[in-house]
């Protein structure tokens, strides 16, 4: 309605005598837009009527255009739209201005009301009045961001919007292949296009005057378009990872004729194969940037990761070779060095990295077998195939796939035309030298590749010889693996070849079956023995060990495996023509038993390792050494029963018992921790003997000394006294032996222990040993005096004198207590009842005191006499020239051992005491300790020492007795 009214109005407004509409049409057709616009602007400024009619026309046409656009965007009822815009017609000028004024009067713009339609009732659509005020460019960008691409396309076409700016607002996940908005997305994509010419009509001129010039979108160059597509692809890849979407964008860009997208198209296609077609897709979540940063070797490894031996060849053909073909073409285009070896180099590098993945290595080696046609082979060069196999097999760490290594060896080519190697060529030594090259030694992780690089310098003849050595090494490795001691092929060369120590360790491990193989039958163990002997042949792994040594290692392993009956049976058999001597059998049995012993946790010989240690000794014939080992085990078990501790709360283990520097410390610990153990002397001595001291009298004496110490601590004088006499007896036995068997130093040590124990027990007071016998103590002191050093005699004599005086005092006290009773009895018998008897108590007390004083003097005299007599009894031993009969107090020895029984008489020669009532005392035996301490020739052992001591100490030791006698 508005367009018709304004057109009618424009026909009534005249310019140069013709209607305005006619004037505009003529100028538009004859001049360019800029000239017409300038003329119209001048006309509008000069004539208000023209300004008013042109403004009305612009408003009406703008309203009609927006209405049409609104209907397209929101699918409103098109029947409610105003009629289509009529085309301008040539109108005859009106006659006079009155007609024109009538025409203005007939134009009623206010009467045009906004049409009503159903779309306005939809809350999702804005009202038309709002749409009239909206910025269409911003509206188009909103439509693009919300994936309302149909509306965005309409606005882009109608408003000539920038396609790059508009497409940048489209979400990255939008796909051109999407059935909902794909076509609209494709129509919005930037592309090369010519500049569009604006329509030439009066309405366009009026629009330019009132709205400003229309800005056409910028035309982009091919480089700008290429950069946009690259940015779009990178954004999609980095933010969404939708490689397929990126590929679609690149494909459409290429279809538009945009150049420079070929490389990214190749990368996207190859990356999509990795992400969507590779066997292991979970570990290849790469972006396009990651793809570009990877080397060809890494990409090949990613393509083949997760392949199986059955699918490896197919994956190489469909994934790896297309990729390597593209890389080769790129390198060829830039003339990169060695571009023609791109494919074989990548395949070789991947194969060398499979040294520990033998199934895949065997698969690619089999796919490269010389029996196949050359185009079908993955590795086409025979020498390269051999080098790859040698490098991988010798550096592989797998110990359980020898069958695959044999399959690899079976695919090796022959080199019949190769130049023969020298006769002194040794493949093992050659390989050892290769492993010792700086290139291989200095490589930590890629030793396989380094070994291959070194092998590239070898000739075909050397490769053939190395393959022959590989056959021998595989045979050796299979034998070792059969007996659960597998080793790497590399170790056969660099570790065991020429190394006797390592060969012995391996043979020991093989013999002991540390791999865990359970073998019970004799045939299996004999097969193991024959296998070990076979491996000792020249060129094999045990070539540095003699056959007898192999046999020793075999039986050692048999014994440590607990097969004692089988070992005993094989000891007695011929053992495959390699018998062992009895000494070797004894050594093997003892070593195995000690190993069990040292590993035992409990000392009980009936359980665990200790039981095995004891049973192991039965595998060979009993010998003194084997019996000693058995005794030591039994002694350990007995000690363990007493629960000896190495530290508080921790029981002593067998290995601690064996490692004890002085085994007698165990006896001392046993006696100190078990209060009643000292009473069982025979058991203690049996332990001493079984601990290895059966022929060591000094150790027995020391053990007896421990018993004495324990008895003293317990206050048991009888046991202590008996043990001391037993020590003296053992010492006497030692002195009878030749000095070769019992050296003087050892004899002196034994004497030291004996005299100190006798002295310690003899000098103990009655408070420590209630009821102890002074006579027995004096005898012990006599033993101590005879055996002690010279400087100790005076002190011991003083102790002995005290004991003798104590004994005499006790006897005198007993006599004095009996004397008054005897006198009273005599008086009563004589009838002496005079009254004066009651008045003489003081006189009797005085007589008693005198009697006691007289008796004390008598005791002193007797003690001095006995001391002189006993000391004199020792003098016959000071020299061989002095006859034993020189002393009337000493009886002649009655035996060959010179047993001396010197007894001192009760009256001590011609000396008679003046008191007839003094009791005659029993003789004291000080010479008794000399028994068994005299040599076979009748003279005392160490007599010169004793004589010197007596001559130096006698006066000072007993001189006081003389003074006492004089005082009396």
UniProtKB/TrEMBL annotation:
Q: Tell me the InterPro entries matching this sequence.
A: Sec39_domain (IPR013244)
List the GO cellular component terms. Dsl1/NZR complex
Q: Which GO terms describe its molecular function?
A: SNARE binding
Outline the segment boundaries, as ranges, of region: Disordered: 183-203, 814-850, 888-926
Q: Where is the composition biased (Polar residues)?
A: 825-850, 888-897, 909-926
What are the subcellular locations of this protein? Endoplasmic reticulum
> For the Sec39 domain, which residue ranges apply?
216-806
* One Pfam short name: Sec39
Instruction: Output the superkingdom of the source species.
Output: Eukaryota
Keywords for this protein: Endoplasmic reticulum, Protein transport, Transport
Q: Name where it mostly resides.
A: endoplasmic reticulum
The processes (GO biological process) annotated in the record are: protein transport; retrograde vesicle-mediated transport, Golgi to endoplasmic reticulum
Q: Does the keyword Endoplasmic reticulum apply?
A: yes
The answer to whether UniProt assigns keyword Transport to this entry is yes
What protein am I looking at?
A: Sec39 domain-containing protein
